[in-house]
Amino acid sequence: MQIGPPMRRWMKQAAVVANAIYSGRTACSAKLLLGVAAAFCAVVGIYDVLTITLFLSGGPLIGPQRWVLFPDFLVFHAAARAFFEGNLSIIYDFSAFVAYENRIYIDRFPSPVGFRPFLYPPVWLLLILPVALLGVAAAYGAFMATTAAISFVLVGRSDIYGWLAVITSPAALWTMISGQNAFLTVGLFYGGMGLLTRSPAAAGILLGILSYKPQLWILIPVALVAGRHWKALAYTIGTALGLSLISLLVFGFDFWLRFFEMTREASSPEIVNMMFRDVSIYMTTILAAARILGVAPDVAGALHIAGALAGIGMVWFAFRRYSHSNERTAVLAAGTLLLTPYLVNYDMLMLMPAVVAIFRRRMTSRIYPLELLFFVGLWVIPNVGVRFNIYQMPLFPIFVVGFTYLAFITLRAMNQGTSPCWPFKG
């Protein structure tokens, strides 16, 4: 069989990449590697688009198997609907709210659900009230389209190719399957951090809105204090307090009291064990990994605290010592995922723009074979990690911890004018 000139050129380029990867001594061609990465993301993205299309249309499933469509969005829709029906008091009552969901979505649940609580603060309910004005399917479509559009306006316009990779990643697939708010989180977080030095007030407003998800917001004020971004901090806290005040006026003081009572109840051993029973296979944290491996709860908690303290320390050091950059933002994103004990795989979408930024930065330096494999694993872990959790081989924290370290050493090396010393050179 004769090989034509185009194929010979492609084989020659592939040989150059393979040789550079194999040697591990010479920086790979950034152009070639970025092209390979783009092709990889495109293939994964096509698979994800096809998967979600078949999932929502009732076609043959080729990806994750779920017994109900967009279950998390049903929780949002039910909470907003309960408000308009005058059932505000049931939203933070675990048993009453689940009974309400089973009643209004009887046509969507093959069998009654046992634990589908609304665990968000009143601010989130305030933001999603409009979804109750539509039927659940139309509301889901509008919600996902709107949050993706916000993400594009705040982040994607300045980096269309990076945004397309993120929005079609496996983490985005799980966001769509679950009906979650991760697109909005990405837009607010990276949009806010991107404006931090150019427009601190706008940055603070965006970051303050993110307070609807406290577990992903809690390190932002810490980072702003460490970086002495006082104006952005003031707007962040002011926006969070302003939204809380509006929700207090709309829902009343008793509703906020019920929220705090719910958070106390949700931290009880009974509820925590119930959450791990139902969602542990999707969880990404050190605590969840330790529990999956059978580690005693106290020891698992101690391991998670150690990881969280390390993440906080790196975030503080990064923002105290270094100026604004994508790499510094990546440290904050990764440290946030280390801090929170109850994150699931779609929350890793918050990490994906940081993964793109660090990968691009590494293309200007020296990248090693196992490092490339690490990036591949990090990109697909939101999907394949679920399967490993099922077989009691939790890999999620390995990638979160590894990326946190890689982002931190990349930031330091960039500011010192050296190449990051990645420990696994292959």
Ordered list of secondary-structure elements with their pairings:
Blueprint: H1 5-23, H2 30-57, H3 71-84, H4 94-104, H5 122-128, H6 136-154, H7 160-167, H8 170-178, H9 182-194, H10 200-209, H11 214-217, H12 219-226, H13 230-251, H14 253-266, H15 269-279, H16 286-292, H17 297-321, H18 326-339, H19 352-363, H20 369-390, H21 396-416
Helix pairs in contact: 2-8, 3-4, 5-13, 6-9, 7-19, 9-10, 10-13, 12-17, 16-17, 17-18, 17-21, 18-19, 18-21, 19-21, 20-21
Descriptive account of the structure:
The protein is mainly α and 426 residues long. The chain has a domain at 269-426. It is 70% helix and 0% strand. It is globular, with a radius of gyration of 22 Å. The protein starts with a helix and ends in a 10-residue tail after the last helix. The model is unreliable at 21-28 and 422-426 (pLDDT under 50).
Radius of gyration: 22 Å
**What does the overall shape look like?**
globular
Give the DSSP E fraction (strand runs of 2 or more residues).
Answer: under 5%
- What is the element string, with H for helices and E for strands? HHHHHHHHHHHHHHHHHHHHH
